[in-house]
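Below is the data:
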Amino acid sequence: MQMAFQGREKNRVPKDWLIPPPHPLRDELATALRISPVVAQVLLNRGIEDAETARQFLRPAASDLIPPERLPGATEAAERIAAAVRDGRRIVLFGDYDVDGITGVSILWHCLRLAGGDPAFYIPHRLEEGYGISPEAITSLADEGAQVIVSVDCGVTAIEPARIARERGVELIITDHHAPHRGANGALELPDALLVHPGLSEGSYPNPNLSGAGVALKVAWAIAQNLSGAKKVSEEYRAFLIDAMGLAALGTIADIVPLLGENRIIAHHGLLGLPQSRLAGVRALIASAGLAGKALDGYDIGFKIAPRLNAIGRMGHAQLAVELLTRADEAEAMKIAANLEQQNKARQTLERKIAGEAEEMVQAQGQDADSVRAIVLASHGWHAGVIGIVASRMTEMFGKPTVMIALENETGQGSARSVRNFALNEALADCGQFLITYGGHAMAAGLRIKAERVDEFRTAFQNRAGQLLTSNDLVPKLRVDDVVSLDRLNESLVKELKQLAPFGAGNPAARLATDWLDVFGDPRTVGSAGTHLQMQLTDGRTRCKGIAFGQAKASGQLADHRRCRVVFEPVINEWNGRRSVEMQVLDIKFPE
């Protein structure tokens, strides 16, 4: 995305274009649905091969959501939580400090308030406490009188905290979606607590990729059924669940879970409902992002709204973001939203600084060499709340798994991002002897480490990457949906492709490729910093304008070769009352 390094040009790393052949069912599906063969090909590339499944994909229905009783542990959790509310027990919602955790906690808070409860919420401080449920946090909450603790988006690895909770007489209910730890024999190691988790029961739940907020939504739905005394909830709970779907969409999109199946339904209907949300905090957040009165899409969430919610957790304390989405009235919500905006700007400035230092460090230390298949960087000058974002940029830039470690005194807090075929949770487990703690997913993870062990960890981690990754794994792959001619690029096609939204992980916006085209006129560098490249391409009959964000360095090659192929996303550009289809160019190939 062009937002990755604002004011800096991206290095052009040659990419392998993965272009599937025309699917044999392409024309049949296009005829059955009365859609363009290009759109049919995109659907088939997503594994959607029959007309009925395609219709459900193009028109996601809330009635197709998986009922909460199918989520292992959800019904029992709802019964226990509803009983705790009725008995007036002190309930604390314990959430992660990212968007997924923030929105999940907010969903359950509103649900319990509607049920007549008065829950508290607790979000650990990212820099002072780190990720997850700590023994210290459980002890502190028990000392303060907590009787029931419900985790959101964390807890599946909290074996010691669960033991302490049981000893202190605190009922612990864990709702999570992260990968659990496994012992040396490969067996799961799970905390002694009631677990609500979509991926633990050998495929019994059809959507193991449910987000943390999605799990919270299902638990809230189950609570609503319990208190309504029927599977069909009361009108009051129905209105609540509509607002909750919007919060769950925020968490689902921000947490980059695949937007397919049930996740697609949550994202689709949540995005539709967010602009009409009854929650003052949601309205203030949308207004602060300059999106008031507009239909929202996945890009708006991922690049405008989610960064604001994440920024306060990175730069300050995410407790404030939960306040925004729960207790805040109109005036307080606007004040908090303005604070989040300031924190987000500060985060962007800091991110650019650390990214520049990290890029120079990779090159100075030779970690960009072909023989080195993973990057591990550490510095005392880095902010632990920002390194995860920068790790993503380094992975994108160099095509390698990256661990960024912010050192403070004798310990360091790290964030890791990965590439295909290298599961971080497994790699960190293999290197666990060098770490204090670790956890996360295959593609994103966190860790804590003693400063004196960073070099040992780097060696072990890079050795593991060298064993598991081939040179081909490190070549960036660009998956292309179809090859199209310029005369097929029209508004009708762009509108049809928009029916595939919301876009995100598992369902990216359609990427199309051209055949060889000629450059018409001279390419121009544009933008305030001159980092973008504008071009016009022609096949001799049709001409189309293209814009390549962050690729100004390719202007010389484009001018010299005068011929290229491009991968692009088609967009409609409106300027001075005129509409035209243009190409947002993602990659350029030149003749050899």
Q: What stands out?
A: The chain has 19 helices and 22 strands. The first helix runs from residue 26 to 33. The CA atoms of residues 68 and 218 lie 5 Å apart.
